Amino acid sequence: MLNVYKQTFLHSSATKVRSLQLNFLHSFTSFFFFSPTSTLYIYFFSSVESVSAERGKPLAEDEVRLGLRSGGRLELESGAGARRGLKPTERNIVICCSLKIIMLSRHASKLLRHSYSRAVSNCRSFASANVETDPVERDPAPFFFNEEVQACLRTLTTVDYSKVLRTRRDGHKLKPPEYKFLTDEELEEATKAARRRAEKFLQMPPVVKQRLDPSAPLCEDAALQSHDTVKYVFTDITFGLRDRERLIVIREPNGTLRHATWKERDRLVQSFFPKPERQIQKPKMFEGEYLQDLLNRKEYEFILDRACVQFEPDNPDYQAVTREVYEHINAEKHFDILRSTRHFGPMVFHLVWTSNIDNLLLEMIETGRVKDAALLIRLYHMIHPTTKSAVERCEHTDDAEFIMHYARLESTRKDKIQKLLQSYKELQREREIVAEGIKLAHGISSEITDKV
Length: 452
Prior knowledge:
Blueprint lengths: L1 H5 L4 H6 L3 E3 L8 E4 L6 E4 L3 H4 L12 E5 L5 E5 L1 H5 L3 H16 L1 H20 L1 H6 L9 H4 L2 H11 L3 H4 L19 H18 L17 E2 L11 E5 L11 E4 L4 E4 L2 H11 L15 H9 L3 H11 L5 H17 L2 H4 L5 H10 L4 H9 L3 H14 L4 H4 L7 H11 L4 H28 L4 H6 L1
Parallel strand pairs: 1-4
Antiparallel strand pairs: 2-3, 2-7, 4-5, 6-9, 7-8, 8-9
């Protein structure tokens, strides 16, 4: 058995095979077997039409068929023309493979009949199947993607066009500025295009539950124990599949067949289908002192942008990095650095999700964003509807009173919130007095203004 696997199946013979009839696999297309020792290269090519062929159909002269026979035996058959079209050494490989497949049929056919369809369906729903294994921990995704929550996060992000559409130092060549004379209609259209571009830049990264590695093995075959000292990786490289839908299984040296872990999947998928700017290994900038140095330099947006490129949203490394950045911003009260960026909404959601909004609330009141502060508390009530401030409704419609209602029942810093709100009210009264004085200086009375 091992001698057959150690031989190299020549590419020239694989290209001469028109179709590989697979009567027992109904969704098996373009499967690729890879050995880390680079001694095993076997290509199976099939098409949707060839899969539907019935067992027992006569072979064409240039066809090769892998079929399931009575008693659960697997046999490799080839037409006379296919055998004549191969070199003698290649014919020997085909015949030898046929004999060895029959010898392995007892375990292989059992695995294929009872495990393959289940393995494919499990892999095709890999993300949703693995994130729901812990019913105690809540999944943030349904809350984050709620339309009302999304509207609140977009409002809290605010849009500063000078910041959103600023020149970015991301390695791309800068375009020279263009000056145009526009009509009113053209100016309005250009403004709408700029708004659409700003909305694209402010698209928030998703917040989802952390993924879990599959634990149950697919098969444990004692006959394959110690067959080799390396692991065999089987990867579905069918064109057009999503990365999460690809079946990737690993045969351990002890004979255990299991799904690949998420780290193994990420490494293999990046090897076969590389994504721009994504590295196979985790960059050093996300580790220890390197990350801390970037945080001390306030490079928050750079860290989060790079994390979005390197990791998937449910990757534990991505969530660990973003959590550390958000907590550092919250501790240092550097919220304004992320405001009007695509990461401000996820940061607000994280603080609300962890019931840690007091610092952000204080910052909003200090900067005069009282409406945003009230909206932040309403968002908190959406995600935590059983809290005291959510259950005991506030009778006042004023934003300041609504914030004070929350501070009395929930906040650990209610004294400071109360002082800031008092200062805000006094400032508002002073502004009203100044505005009234300006009106009187221009001969405009408040009564006339009210009538208008």
